[in-house]
Amino acid sequence: MKLTLQKISLFSFLLFAAFTAKAQTTCDCSETFKWVKETFEKNDAGFDYAIQQKGMDMYEKHNAVFLQKVKTITESHECAEVLNEWLKFFRKGHFGVMALATATTQQSANVKQWPVLAVKEKELRSKPTKDAKDLVGIWKVGSYKIGIVKKDKGYKGVILESGNVAWKPQQVKMEINEDGSGVFYMGDFSPLKFKKMDWIGKNAIKLAPAIQLQREYPTFPENADIQLYAKAMSMGKPFMEKLSEETLYLRIPSFGGEQKKVIDSVLLAHEKEIKSTKNLIIDIRNGTGGDDDSYANIIPYLYTNPIRIVGMELLSTPLNNKRMESYLSMPDLSEKSRMQVNAALTLLNDNLGKFVNLNGGDKVHIQKMDAVLPFPQQVAIIANEANGSTDEQFLMAAKQSKKVKLFGTSTFGVLDISNMNFVKSPDEKFQLGYCLSKSYRIPGMAIDGIGIQPDYFIDSTIPNELWIKYATSVLEDKEFQP
Prior knowledge:
Layout: H1 5-8, E1 12-13, H2 29-43, H3 47-54, H4 56-71, H5 76-87, E2 96-99, H6 103-113, H7 121-126, E3 137-141, E4 144-151, E5 154-162, E6 172-176, E7 182-185, E8 191-194, E9 198-200, E10 204-208, E11 211-217, H8 224-234, E12 239-242, E13 247-251, H9 260-269, H10 271-274, E14 279-283, E15 289-290, H11 299-302, E16 307-310, E17 312-315, H12 318-326, H13 335-349, E18 355-356, E19 364-367, E20 378-383, H14 390-398, E21 404-408, E22 417-424, E23 430-439, E24 456-457, H15 467-475
Parallel strand pairs: 13-14, 14-20, 20-21, 21-24
Antiparallel strand pairs: 1-15, 2-23, 3-4, 3-11, 4-5, 5-6, 6-7, 7-8, 9-10, 10-11, 12-13, 16-19, 17-18, 17-23, 22-23
């Protein structure tokens, strides 16, 4: 039986080296380093490839440095940070060490001693600031409503309302210093430090790639370009807007598996518009990676000719193959899929220590469709340096279409070594994420550490909020006027 990874549904997630939680527990970092090193060396699909590229001498020198570093570390979050630095030897992302903690214990310990500040929404509404660059006011981020007040030459943000039961009104949620640096406390009370707060127009601020606050009160007049950009970067769900009679705009913040239904529903709701409008802009900036299935229903709108999808091979080890075994416990697994998984497991277990092709030996899958849609005629996809993994897989397929041009900057470059697996350390204080697969594209067309290059490079003289306007001007053959 010919097995396909599409049927078995292996997922590819985008994780960066900064994937650590600040769990304040003690640990034996030397022992943890030993476990991470051995587990990664034996099971990561990119380990041998990295050694071939950089050499064993360089790797041993790298290890010697970190063996000394871990000796003096006793806090788990510091250990995780150092181990993530160690992992950067191999590639830019698709790995991670996370310090684990019992959420209830961590939260209850923090709540008892967490700083509070007497801030009430009524008072903030009674004396609204008239300065658009003054942060004082009411802001929203995710399920939190935050009141920001001036304090200690900077600002403090305090919970007014929270969708997270762990966070209570008047607890300090964030701090911004006079120089724009500061800290935002995450749902588990762990600190996310940022070097500089950035304004997005007059009614939004960005603290980190995933943390953007939208001003609720008072609000200030804003031009349409900034309004759309702020909406695109703050909304966690896809949406579509009409920019002109010629151009539609589709924002997709994530290809995560949980987003597939939402993406498909947006496409369905606007199907007639898409099929009758000349241009389509798809904005995937700051994506999260996810599942290839999430973009499957976008491809028909882009398609012009058969798409060549270069496959991958899986590194077979006892630990890696346990992930395939986990599919057998899925409650909705069909009998046909169960047979496929069992056949894949047999093939993997018969080839321990080797790379295995589960696609019957085929290295390339050719995707063909029955028709080329007359509209859209032109498609611009906007991406930036934060896009990797599944985002890049989408771009690799899309850029083969005669309709498509890529706009923005080079992507992050984490696609060659992919399909992450997560395992806990023997003491269950840490979780290691590493990769199971290696693409047949390498070394001939490596993406890792390089990224995918745009057709239209958007340089730093064009601010982020004008990227949509720039792409529109190209598609509509108009002069770009910032």
